[in-house]
Each structure stands twice: as structure tokens, then as C-alpha cells.
What we know:
This protein has helices at 8-15, 19-29, 46-60, 65-74, 80-96, 100-113, 116-136, 142-159, 183-194, 208-218, 238-247, 259-264, 274-285, and strands spanning 35-36, 42-43, 170-176, 198-206, 222-226, 249-253, 268-269. By secondary structure, it is an alpha/beta fold.
Amino acid sequence: MTEKLLRIGELSRRVGVSVELLRAWERRYGLLTPERTRGGFRLYGEEDVDRVLSMRANLDRGVAAAEAARLVVEHDPGPPDTAMAEASAALAAALDSFDDAGAHAAFDRLLSTFTVDVVLEEAVLPYFRELGERWRRSEISVGHEHFASNLVRGRLLGLSRGWDRGVGPRALLACVEGEQHDLPLLVFGLLLRSHGWRISYLGASTPISSVVAAAQSLEPSAIVLSGTVSGAFGDIAPRKLHEVARLSTLFLAGAAADAQLTRRARASYLDDDLVAAARGLRARLV
């Protein structure tokens, strides 16, 4: 099947980087390798999308632009499956042993080799799924869960810097009042950002009145309310959710949401599979 090639405007929307900056990166650093039509128009492929996303990941880590581009253009991580397996195993081992420096080093290695969405999908999410299973089997302590969650949450907050910039649609994300577990919502926001969305993040335990005020100001394309603890949505009157749903397309997420609740709220339910949910939201609204 022939690869679909993109004009630079479509590439810009896909990756959340302005056309002017894409052209500058191509001109200064050779980051992009477009084909040309007979009329002279540049056309970009999926490898260009991956390079720009890797460039953005490096910049988000605080790497200077020239060095960030060099890492993308010149870095050869070896067989991707082996590199991912080794780095993921190193991250898991460090988190399990309360090794702060080792965990940060493993995270740095992952981010220097793979895009943010790949790191989340193939390293972070699998680790926390396994961590949850081990917790249910009483194989780890509260301390293990807190150490891993707090360290990774801090890294994800660092990656979220500037995630509201760009030209894509805007998503407003919040945990319902009383819900303190915002790590899944952070992951979802970063995955959605990798699909070109701009993110406005209100975080844990957000009153509905604050969501309404933010939505009225930002006019987002989508609003996502998350609740992971059973009954998290229970204290919210349906009319309050209706008020939110009138302002934008409303999605409910997390284990506390279900089909009956989403119908009553005039909302839609987001899949617990965060990767699928991010792709699905992009497909439905873009």
C-alpha cells in the first residue's frame, strides 16, 4: 500500500508545530526529508512525523534545539524492540528498588530513543498495569506504589510543559472533585497531545464550577472528566454535568464512569485503554 504523503500544513496539524518552525528545522538541521512533486511542492511521510515528534520530545526535556535535532538525525538506538525491552526493564527495576537516580536515568534513556507516546504506550502503561496487579496480590507495599507514581508523575508533568501551544483542537481535562489520582489523566493528555491536540489541564479534585468557568473561557473542543474511585461521580448532580455538556462535547473517563452515568450526563464514555481512548477521541472530533 502506498504511503500517504502530507503537505506541510497537514504535517503541522498532525504534530502541533507551526509551519514556520517546521521549515526552520528542515532548513537549519535537515530534520525533514520531503519528497517533491513535479510542481515543486514538498510532501512529507510518516518518518517525518516521527522525527518531529522526537524533536519535540527532546525539546520538552530541555535539550537545546541544535542538539535535539542532532539526536534525532544521528541517533541509532539499535533494534527498537531490544532497546525498548532493555530500557523498560531498567526503569521497572529502579522503581521497584526505590532507586531515584536509576529511574530518572532509565526514563532519560527511553525519551532519548523513543517518542513520548511510544514511551507511554510500551513502557509506562505496562509497568503500572503490572504494578496494579501486584498490588491486588499484596506483593508490593503502599510505599512502592507511592514512590513509582510520584516519580513518574513528576516526569510527566515535565513533559507537559507547553502542551497547550499549537493550532490543534483544545481538550480541557480534569479529575472530579475528591479524585486525587490524576496519573491516568496525565498520561491521556500526553497521548492526546501526540495526536496534535492542545491540552488545558486542571488536575486532581476539580469542582464542577471550576470546570464550567474554564470551559467558558477556553471554549474547548472536548472536556474530559476523570474518576477512578468508585462513586467519584456520585455527588455531582446530573444538571451540573448537563451544564458542562452544553459547553462542549463531554467525555467521562475512569473506573467510576459507566454507561448509565454517561447517558444521564449526556456524555460519552472513554475507553479504559488510554491509548485507544486518545486515538478514538481524535478520530471522533478531528
